[in-house]
Automatic annotation (TrEMBL):
Limits of the PCI domain: 606-780
Pfam families: eIF-3c_N, EIF3CL_C, PCI
InterPro entries per the UniProt record, alphabetical: EIF3C, EIF3C_N_dom, EIF3CL_C, PCI_dom, WH-like_DNA-bd_sf, WH_DNA-bd_sf
Gene name for this UniProt entry: NIP1
Name recorded for this polypeptide: Eukaryotic translation initiation factor 3 subunit C
SMART domains on file: PINT
Domain of life of the native organism: Eukaryota
UniProt record similarity statement: Belongs to the eIF-3 subunit C family.
Biased composition (Low complexity): 841-851
Polar residues composition bias: residue spans: 808-817
Length: 864
């Protein structure tokens, strides 16, 4: 089929191609004769072919074969130009040139009306467009002309502002500053062309010759020398690099760093490749400025590997970032004339490094050390959240906290050094954030662990360096360290940081059994009044501190204080959620994926958890010691029946009592419920055995002391329960009998009875001569009186319920009654104030709250 597409313009090319296709000239001649015979049958086609051969004067020969059926380029173009409405197809390069010219015209229009806001936007767009139109590193001449004229126009505007300052609006001022920065930054790459344009603009624009791009150089692959037997093995080796690898030199470091920074956040960016390039840049860096810049960019690039809130950094990348951050702090410690500070101006000149000028003490590098440290800390926390805490991997990962704490201490020392120079104006907030991070790692740890952390951190710091806030000599005392850090934040911060510092100190005091100091600080801080206005992280810390204070009160034997403190957290049934130790699955509440992700981010690592089983055991035990005597007291006094200390405990107790068969206790709740049942029956020894058999007490320090304290509490509450239960059956009762029955000292029995009498819990008197308790019968209510009071309470509640129901049902028809009332009043011929009688069609409107309902004799008795 290829014979139908052969051309007849060039005989030499035709013959050579025919030889390749058909292999011989004889076959070619046969094909020509055959085609000529076919062509002779059609006269019209011959005529057209003759006309084409005659009109083609340039070629000088008529087209042969099937070529006459194909149109030339010229004829096709002429036909396309003749057809109206046909769209001319442009190449991508022509379209880009058109866009470039349109942008340049917009910039020129902006110059005419002095609109620097639009000029700034269009110049940014122009710089992006010219990147695609560069030819061998040369920019289009139209672009060079535009930026050169724009720079001159900008300089004229700035000069006019200095001579006759006019107040520009905010948009123009921002646009002018942006154009100034972009011109200064962008014109460096095309300075040679701009200089040529300014030297002779006409010659520059008329010259059509564009420098051809240099031919691609052949990639030279240099192999390492291979030593053969008998040759000297001590030759020098040359590193083999890829053909596309950039040439890295100390002079090219700023340009490479700028290119890497500009590509951050863009799609299809190979972050690992950038990290490898920066590692090589760090190896060739010579000056301290170059090393600091490369280290900061490298740490930032490693942090970019964290893809989002759901995942954490890879372990090897985190450790590499930790090492590089430690190297950065060590370098800043050695080179004291180089400082990294927030708000410093960016050095834009890539050709030369900054140097100290006259009157300057420091080379300021923009950056934030505290932000790097906070991000490193957050990544460690996120990593611990994603690891199973019951594996050895969690323990190994937790060992990295020591290295992180060393960096936190070094960062704190660095900011202390910067704060000594008042000319630097280092913000106080940065130092406060560093101290808060240090507090977050020590407030929940025992003193022994804090002491080890401090000793290891100071070993990494030179002996010549010391802290003014936390001197090296105070590192052995954990309590003193916490006190100093918190007091510093009390004086130099406010808001959330100050509140968190106070909560950390309270937590530490409660953890080390200083209950009264922790309680006083909690009450004087008034945090319970405005904690709802703080962020969720601070609310979680408040809940943790509250729980720790309650556990401290329990260890001190203060049962009432412990139960009262733990009631807010444990009584809600949402301990996991409030303490950020797990996500509660609620039955009628659907959690969105975004809320679930945020909840998981707020979860604390496992080593910071408070044992929830121990917390529940303490809460239920305290509730038992308070509720059982109260239940015994309300058996004969219905007025106190409304008082409930713990609704959670009451529900568990009622559920346990409803069970027909109860086996031996299996968990903590079963032990406490069985002990409650035994204590209510007066079997205090049995109750003590149930409580002591709970294995969770072994997790608390001084387990034997706690069990002894619980035994004494059960004895005392058993005595109170016995007196409440059996007081109606005694006239007198000897203290010695009670002492023998509950194995308490007679003085302790007398003290308990006296306290009950003084609080009017027991209607009795204590005879100290005979050491007996004399009960008074007249004060006790009879069975009938108790039932009458109960009936009156229920009747009053029933009346109120009926009145509310009636009011809700009649509320919608009140307007209709009022309309009838007004109509009836008008028809009756007199005004009745909207309260017409029955004959007038009105209806007396009832007041809210049932004030018009007397309730009969029973209601009068209740109100009386």
């Amino acid at each position: 089929m290829s014979r139908f597409f052969r051309g007849g313009d060039d005989s030499s090319s035709e013959s050579s191609s025919d030889e390749e296709l058909y292999g011989s000239e004889e076959e070619e001649e046969e094909e020509k004769d055959k085609l000529q015979q076919d062509d002779s049958d059609d006269d019209d086609m011959d005529q057209e072919s003759d006309e084409e051969s005659e009109s083609d004067s340039d070629d000088g020969a008529a087209k042969k074969g099937t070529s006459r059926f194909l149109l030339d380029v010229e004829s096709s173009e002429s036909e396309e130009s003749d057809v109206e409405g046909t769209t001319k197809v442009k190449s991508a390069k022509d379209k880009r040139f058109d866009e470039l010219e349109a942008t340049i015209s917009l910039i020129q229009n902006g110059q005419k009306i002095n609109d620097w806001g639009s000029i700034s936007n269009e110049l940014d767009k122009l710089n992006r467009q010219v990147v695609k139109l560069q030819d061998g590193g040369k920019a289009p001449k139209a672009y060079i002309k535009c930026v050169a004229e724009l720079e001159d126009f900008m300089n004229e505007t700035l000069a006019k502002q200095k001579v006759t300052p006019k107040k520009m609006n905010a948009t123009n001022a921002r646009g002018l500053n942006a154009v100034k920065q972009r011109i200064k930054k962008g014109n460096k790459d095309y300075q040679d062309q701009i200089d040529a344009f300014r030297k002779d603009s006409d010659a520059f624009m008329e010259s059509d010759e564009e420098e051809a791009p240099p031919p691609p150089k052949a990639t030279k692959v240099r192999f390492e020398a291979t030593s053969f037997p008998g040759e000297d093995d001590g030759g020098d080796f040359t590193e083999v690099t890829g053909g596309r690898g950039p040439k890295l030199t100390p002079e090219s470091i700023p340009k490479h760093l700028r290119a890497i920074l500009e590509s951050r956040g863009k799609k299809n960016t190979d972050r690992l490749e950038q990290i490898k390039i920066m590692e090589r840049l760090l190896a060739v860096a010579v000056t301290p400025y170059q090393k600091i810049r490369v280290l900061m960019t490298l740490v930032s690039a490693r942090f970019d590997l964290g893809t989002g809130g759901a995942s954490s950094m890879p372990l090897e990348q985190w450790k590499a970032a930790e090492r590089e951050l430690a190297s950065l702090l060590l370098l800043l410690e050695k080179e004291k004339d180089h400082i990294v500070i927030e708000g410093a101006e960016e050095w834009d000149d890539d050709d030369k490094a900054p140097v100290l000028e006259n009157g300057q003490k420091y080379i300021k590098i923009p950056g934030s050390i505290v932000s790097y440290i906070e991000r490193l800390d957050d990544e460690l926390t996120r990593s611990l959240q994603s690891i199973d805490p019951h594996t050895s991997e969690y323990i190994e990962r937790l060992t990295d906290e020591g290295a992180l704490y060393n960096i936190i201490v070094q960062g704190l020392l660095y900011y202390e050094m910067l704060r000594k120079d008042a000319s630097l104006e280092v913000p106080q907030e940065s130092l406060n954030r560093m101290i808060q991070r240090r507090l977050d790692h020590v407030y929940f740890k025992p003193s022994q662990v804090v002491k080890i952390l401090e000793e290891n951190s100071w070993k990494e710091i030179p002996d010549s360096v010391d802290s003014t806030i936390t001197p090296r000599s105070q590192s052995s005392d954990a309590a003193q360290l916490i006190n100093v850090l918190c007091n510093y934040l009390f004086e130099n911060s406010d808001g959330i940081i100050r509140a968190r510092a106070m909560l950390c100190q309270i937590y530490f005091l409660a953890l080390h059994d200083e209950y009264y100091r922790a309680r006083d600080m909690m009450l004087t801080s008034h945090l319970q009044e405005n904690i709802a206005n703080f962020d969720i992280t601070s609310q979680i810390l408040y809940n943790r501190t509250l729980v720790q204070v309650g556990l401290c009160a329990f260890r001190k034997g203060l049962v009432y204080d412990a139960q009262n403190t733990l009631q807010e957290i444990c009584g809600s049934g949402r301990q996991k959620e409030l303490l950020a130790q797990g996500v509660m699955i609620q039955r009628f509440h659907q959690v969105t994926p975004e809320q679930e992700r945020l909840e998981k981010q707020r979860q604390l690592p496992f080593h910071m958890h408070i044992n929830l089983e121990l917390l529940e055991c303490v809460y239920l035990t305290c509730s038992m010691l308070l509720e059982i005597p109260l239940l015994a007291q309300t058996g004969s006094s219905p007025d106190v029946k409304k008082r409930v200390i713990s609704k959670t405990y009451r529900r568990m107790l009622e559920y346990h009592e409803r069970q027909i068969f109860t086996g031996p206790p299996e968990n903590t709740r079963d032990h406490v419920m069985q002990a409650s049942k035994a204590l209510a029956a007066g079997e205090w020894k049995k109750a003590t055995n149930f409580i002591h058999s709970i294995k969770i007490w072994d997790l608390m320090p001084s387990t034997e002391e706690i069990k002894t304290m619980l035994a004494k509490q059960i004895q005392e509450e058993g005595l109170r329960t016995y007196l409440f239960t059996y007081a109606p059956f005694y006239d007198t009762l000897a203290i010695e009998t009670l002492s023998t029955m509950f194995e308490l000292d007679s003085r302790k029995v007398s003290a308990v009875v006296s306290k009950m009498i003084s609080h009017e819990e027991l209607a009795a008197a204590l005879d100290q001569v005979t050491e007996t308790v004399i009960f008074r019968k007249g004060v006790e209510l009879s069975r009938l009186q108790s039932l009458a009071l109960t009936l009156s309470d229920k009747a009053s509640s029933l009346i109120e319920t009926n009145e509310r129901t009636l009011e809700q049902r009649t509320q919608g028809s009140t307007n209709a009654f009022n309309r009838k009332d007004r109509q009836g009043g008008q028809r009756g011929g007199g005004q009745r104030g909207g309260r017409g009688g029955a004959r007038a069609g009105g209806n007396t409107q009832r007041q809210a709250g049932g004030t018009q309902f007397t309730g009969g004799a029973l209601g009068a008795a209740v109100r009386g």
